[in-house]
Structure to design on (208 residues):
């Protein structure tokens, strides 16, 4: 049972995975990828947030994960990268939150799906939180670039949202796009997917 501690994060949430543009996990909980598993990288930039009395605003982190089947079926591998601009105290705070040790959703539930986890790994993180063209990267490790979907007839940007009127697991309103770059190579985690599901949202955690 996690040790419940006061924290809150309002963040730019940049999500990319190996599902189609209508990611099955968003609707029924099961990936529609070719493998039937989920491979994802998520970038976060804290707009405002705290752990106890410690301010976490402006910090960046990236969460990478692989699950052989649906996320809730477990056996996942994960890694957490935190930007080198964070102080030692802030790194400890973010790692405590993201590992679920401080309680709260969705991190408490996600943490329970991993059998292997690495981090926090301190790296220089480059991030752009633009609504329709968000991106993030860690040199030599990972890269993600989002782009709008295109209307197949006109070629114009095709604006699509997924919304959860009663509140979503990770976010409530996501701008859905696609990826022009998505790769991850670190330790025993390696994948690359282009032209798959992408979402940009504002996440407010804990959401439970």
């Amino acid at each position: 049972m996690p040790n419940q501690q006061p924290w809150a994060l309002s963040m730019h949430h940049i999500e990319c995975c190996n599902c189609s543009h209508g990611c099955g996990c968003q609707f029924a909980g099961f990936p529609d990828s070719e493998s039937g598993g989920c491979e994802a990288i998520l970038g976060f930039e804290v707009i405002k947030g705290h752990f106890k009395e410690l301010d976490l605003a402006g910090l960046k982190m990236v969460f990478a994960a692989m699950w052989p089947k649906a996320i809730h079926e477990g056996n996942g591998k994960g890694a957490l990268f935190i930007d080198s601009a964070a102080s030692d105290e802030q790194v400890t705070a973010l790692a405590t939150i993201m590992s679920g040790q401080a309680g709260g959703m969705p991190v408490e539930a996600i943490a329970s799906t991993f059998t292997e986890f690495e981090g926090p790994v301190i790296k220089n993180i480059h991030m752009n939180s633009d609504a329709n063209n968000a991106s993030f990267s860690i040199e030599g490790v990972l890269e993600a670039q989002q782009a709008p979907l295109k209307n197949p007839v006109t070629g114009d940007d095709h604006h699509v949202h997924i919304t959860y009127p009663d509140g979503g697991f990770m976010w409530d309103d996501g701008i859905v796009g696609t990826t022009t770059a998505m790769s991850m190579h670190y330790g025993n985690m390696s994948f690359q997917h282009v032209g798959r599901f992408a979402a940009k949202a504002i996440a407010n955690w804990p959401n439970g």
